[in-house]
Write a structure and sequence with these properties.
The longest helix has 18 residues. A hairpin with a 5-residue loop joins strand 13 and strand 14. It contains one helix and 14 strands. The chain starts with a helix and ends with a strand. By secondary structure, the protein is mainly β. Helices cover 11% and strands 47% of the residues. The protein is rod-shaped, with a radius of gyration of 31 Å. A four-stranded mixed sheet has the order 2-7-6-5, with no helix packed on it. The chain has a four-stranded mixed sheet with strand order 9-14-13-12, with no helix packed on it.
Length: 171
């Protein structure tokens, strides 16, 4: 009789072992963009050993590993792994650290006062970017339609411009 009980138990064990399905799904999107210097918020994953009827029998622990550095632009990978004596499964999330913030141009004046026919004047300005820092040396200037236009782009292609009206006065 004991051999019948042992055979039935082995049969039940093999049935569940062979028919159990390992589920591993990401919480959230597979691809995420994070702005440089922002915090990456891990969304995690869901894991479950389910039977042939779809009932979750056991939620195995998920090992999460990544090399994300939000202070550096680039592509990163988050790995989610489940390991057991019967199964191993891994999925990944792709995280791209990007710079979408426009640089800022600061000036010390709101307009330019000058004499007619004089385009030789000085404008004090600074340009700063969240990633590239001081980019004042990249500012391009031009005069169009009585306006002094300052334009700058950062290394990620984000650009800004600032326009100052030129007011001509006779003295």
């Amino acid at each position: 009789k004991n051999w019948i009980i042992i055979t039935v138990l082995i049969g039940i064990f093999l049935f569940y072992t062979l028919t159990m399905h390992l589920v591993l799904n990401l919480n959230g999107d597979e691809y995420i963009e994070v702005n440089v210097f922002d915090e990456y918020k891990e969304k995690g994953a869901y894991s479950c050993y389910s039977d042939i009827f779809g009932f979750c029998l056991y939620e195995p622990e998920i090992e999460i590993s990544s090399n994300i550095d939000t202070s550096k632009l680039g592509d990163y990978t988050v790995n989610y792994t489940i390991s057991s004596s019967f199964h191993q499964k891994q999925i990944q999330r792709k995280v791209t650290v990007v710079d979408k913030e426009k640089p800022v141009i600061n000036v010390t004046q709101e307009s330019i006062l000058t004499c007619p026919n004089n385009n030789d004047f000085e404008v004090n300005y600074l340009a700063f970017d969240n990633y590239d820092q001081d980019i004042t040396d990249k500012v391009m200037t031009k005069i169009e339609n009585d306006e002094y236009i300052l334009e700058v782009s950062d290394s990620s292609g984000n650009s800004s411009s600032l326009t100052l009206p030129i007011i001509y006065e006779d003295k």
